[in-house]
Write a structure and sequence with these properties.
By secondary structure, the chain is an alpha+beta fold. Helices cover 26% and strands 26% of the residues. It contains 4 helices and 8 strands. The chain has helices spanning 15-20, 53-76, 98-112, 150-155, and strands at 23-27, 36-40, 115-124, 127-137, 142-146, 174-181, 186-187, 192-197. The chain has a 6-stranded mixed β-sheet, with helices on one face. A two-stranded antiparallel sheet has the order 1-2. A hairpin with an 8-residue loop joins strand 1 and strand 2 (36-40). 22% of the residues are buried.
Length: 200
């Protein structure tokens, strides 16, 4: 990171991130050495082994520094959506399938560096199906709900003034942490996952 980047505790861009990601510590079964197991309220980060208080704080600081780098990277790409993506406005108004998802999300990831996934209800011999929802996938292996204008920009009527002209900055697409982990019975290796694999 640049030398001018403040410590994450003094970084205004980290205010929201720090409110979600707080360190938790539990005493380990070693009273003599006062060791602790650490975890994070905002993701699946944990210490692999018990640590003393100083090393625990150091490990958590390293975790938060990684999140800070990601936050600054997203903020740096917060300009208008590139002109060659304007055709995606309303692209999914008539629905979408797995191929559409991969086609659109590949282009968005190439333009912004942000990985998106579509979680479907099931996968069977005909492919993915059922209800579906878009999520943002970050480096902490957690999924986050899509926020901001992205969903409406992709799924709204392109001829309607209420459909956003732009999806907004990619940093605005990251919403609340999803209430499940990225553990699916089906994954196409790109941008489609399914909660259940019912293919016979």
């Amino acid at each position: 990171m640049s030398g001018v980047t403040p410590h994450y505790t003094d970084d205004p861009l980290m205010d929201s991130v720090r409110s979600q990601h707080r360190m938790l510590s539990e005493p380990a079964d070693d009273d003599a050495r006062q060791l602790y197991a650490g975890s994070c309220t905002g993701c699946e980060w944990t210490t692999r082994t018990p640590l003393d208080a100083h090393m625990l704080q150091k490990a958590f600081d390293e975790h938060m520094t990684i999140l800070q780098e990601e936050t600054h990277r997203l903020a740096a790409s917060a300009g208008d959506i590139p002109g060659d993506l304007e055709d995606l406005r309303g692209y999914m108004v008539d629905g979408y399938d797995a191929d559409d998802v991969n086609r659109v999300f590949d282009r968005l990831e190439e333009a912004t560096g942000l990985s998106l996934v579509c979680v479907w209800e099931y996968f069977d011999s005909a492919g993915v199906g059922g209800n579906s929802q878009f999520y943002v996938s970050l480096k902490d292996d957690r999924l986050y709900e899509v926020a901001g204008d992205l969903w409406e920009w992709l799924n709204g009527d392109p001829d309607c003034d209420s459909t956003p002209a732009s999806p907004g900055a990619s940093s605005s697409w990251i919403g609340s942490k999803a209430d499940f982990t990225a553990d699916f019975e089906y994954d196409d290796g790109h941008h489609n996952c399914a909660i259940r694999d019912v293919e016979e």
